[in-house]
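assembly run, all chains below
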Amino acid sequence: MKILARNAGIFKKGGCCLLAIVGFWLLIANSLFAQGERYTRKSVAFVDALMVTNQNIRINPADERYFLATIHNGISISRFDYNPLPDTIRHVFKERLRAKGTVTESELVELIETAIVPEIIKILDIEKEIRAQNLVDETQRNSFIVVKAKEIGITAEQIEQVMNASYLYLPFLSSYRVSKSKDDKNLTVTIKGGLLWYHIIAGDDPHLENIVTLTTEAAGSAEKDKSNAESIALREAAGSMAMNLQVQTREINIFRLNTPIASVERRTISFPLGRAEGIKLDDPFHVGEYIQSADGEVHFRKSGFVRVSTVSDNRQNPRQLSAAYAIQKGDWVKGMTMIEHPRLGIDVAIRPRWFTINAESGFMMSLKEGFVVYFDDYSGSTLGLDVNLHWNIAGLVKKRQTFLVMGGTASLIPVESVIFDYKHWDEDYKWKDLIPVHSWVAGLYYGYVGYLKRFYLGPLAIHGEASLGTQIVSIGKIRGSDYYEGEKVTISNYTIGARLNVGLEYAVNIDWNVGIFAGVQAFPPLDLWTVKYDDEEIDVKNVSGWIAPKFYSYSPSFGIYIHYSVPTLSVNPFSSLQAGMDKIK
Amino acid sequence: MKKSLLMAIIILSVFCLATAKSKKASTKSNLPQSHEAVILESSSPAEVMVRAIGYSSRGGKAAAMDQEAENDARKAAVWLILLGGSDPLLQTDAEKANFAKIQEQFFTAANLKQFIVWEADYYDSRLKIDGGKQLKIEKSFKINKSLLHDDLLKKGVLAETAAVAGALGQPTIMVIPETTGQVAPLELLKTDPNLKKGAEVIEAYLTARKFEVIVPEQQQVLQELTSAQYALQGTSEDYSYLLALSIGSDIYISYNVTIESRKLGSTTVKKGVVGCRAYETTTGRLLGTETGYSPERAATDAVLIEEAMQDAIDKVLSRVTAYWKEDLRQGVQYKIILNVSDSFNKAEAEDMLYAFADQVKKVAKTYRENVVADYTYDVLLWCDPAIHQSSSDLYRFFRQSYKDRGVLSRVSLNRKLILLNIVEE
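ok done. output:
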């Protein structure tokens, strides 16, 4: 399989994704069963090259540069020291790559080994003493060499450790798909790809060794009408992919943060990690200890988990301790080990809810669109299902367990309605459209954004939530032919309102919370209507005046609550904000 | 009735067994469970850095297990200094027996605390063993060995040695670099800064441990050296030995220094390697030898030498101390070389040597003859320091007590070596 190389370079890769995924998960699984010591910093380098494993993938150079920049930005995390390559070296590398044309993965690695790796080793050589200072442990800091001789205390072993703790990654794309549904005004770009991580083996014969391949899928969408819609969608997908890859990178055993507990005071523990390692408020960590079984095998036994409550600035003083609050607490004592549980910082919450809705009978008439719609009375309860994304913004507002909520509710109202369609001047209109369409239920939807604050009391938590949103009551019909060929018409009433909820949760484990909630919602009636034809939605004016139907909800609501902290998301609406937040020091 | 009696006996037996068990538990020994510890470095003449392993008992709350394991590690660290390794503080059977009487009180957490001048905040490793029933931790401590030594003196554990040492003082030690023979060691000390540094480190240790240190000065020793060479001609050509003998040290320490280097990237990293040997001056007997290594670093030679020397000298000095304690039991050691003038015939000379040897038997607590030749008598003798406190005392004794032919006169006298002549009147 040969493909053409463009710009920074597009290459083919002869790897097997399935094996890579299996390898990755084995690596992650191993991390929990290997006795680790404290995390030591690693240095990372990257090259401006995107490897494409499918010759049908075509990305314009500007998008490719954006994609690479987004990935690099996402992988740029504080636990790594970076080995920035000089511009001249990058330029020379690109030139040599361009000159080669189509290359295989092994050829690319060979080129990196000859053009890039020696430069990285030069950088490491310059930086090694400074970086090795982080490896001087407290025993060494109290030894003769530091106390009396006033030396830094670095040994050759630590310098070698720095030289051998250098890694390089290479982004790749294995799939690129564009979807354009006629019912949707947006197009969607779905991409699959990941990172090839290499260990730079320094020494007389410097070379690269592949340690793991990370793969993920992401999607982005944009309005079809825009001239650069595909580009926008790809960039959105790149953002989601970058955040997913960051989490997966943090999950790799050698990159995962782990540290001993410095002290335990009731439910608060302190530990020697901080801004230098890039930990953030609410980051979850497993707590446990290493156990040696009778057959000599050592494994990590978890006995609870914590969430970071205070992040110390340990960049100047490594002795500064951060603190974490125990959600599920075992019999803990100083010296036990904390292991990072990397997550996106986004919870997906599902909430079945009960509430009441009122519909007052009336007509909606649009002369322009040729509709008369009648709604009957209804006043009663209904069940809905909330699907929310809770984005943890604790790092932004410096308050623990603070979330930005974005979500929607789907429900049905058992209200009778009739649609009279007399838009005979529409090209899709057929004689059978004269027959009124009778319905006994209407769709009821809510979309909202809000703020959620949670307070943990051990594994129990109470939360308060306030949100603003819109309520939509919709009915529809197929104009013209059948469902597949005809034009889908949706008539909707809009209103805006607010919701307040309080909940009681229980942390089942580090990822799952379950609970109950109660609240109120207030959505007053508004005479705002739209008609949507397939993917085109237009505002319409109701000319019926005082006989217009009214939909409103002043209601208490109750429900149950389940949330899951996701490791990755295909579509992450917060990705660009998250990437920005990661850069806040 | 019988049944009731039997039941009462059974209940009583069970109660006794239960109370016996609980009593046993309450009188748990303070001695360390773990004897696993290693000396990381001798940080200074007074302090050593130790990494020790501690074990908890089986089962219990995490905090209690942690406390137990940590205490056990502390005990193991102190135990290493007291009784473990190749050069413990307690070396003789008497010292060990003395310590055994107080060890239960000694190994209490409160008592040990005073000797631990620093301990790590974090464990070097922490592992639950035996399927999670027992905790094993590894932790680093800095122990004040000097304080420990003084405390044992105060408690009478090392009293016997202290008393003897008090009467005679610590041994006098000379420090001299090893030489191949082409260049005199004193010359090396002047010209080679690494060797000079090595001597300084050893001398720092010696003075801190209250040994008497003789720094050989060229002018001072030359004259004596000539005499010694004259007396010992043919027996040894070791310059250091001669030098030590001539200036009268009890012990001399010779050492060598090597700095090995290699390139690590653009950095030159070096490793200091020193060899250190202690000899009994009078016999040239090797008392202890040790090699010290510094970690490989990008540091100055002086630092590496000091680091490596500290690694070696502490152990060598422990052996020197052990030797000195043992030697002091026999008294003060002197080496006497008697030379009879060849103006006497062999039979006369033999009689004169025997007459002198009789006096040696009288004055010495114990003695060892090295050479008995036609005209030469070379002997090591140990005298009671209460009677003969110096070589001049001893010389005076021989001068007064020798009644055979000829006149006994001295060629040279120093702290350890007495060179005598018998010449015709």
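The CA atoms of residues 129 and 135 of chain B lie 6 Å apart.

Confidence is low (pLDDT under 50) at residues 20-26 of chain B.

not gonna interpret more than that til we talk
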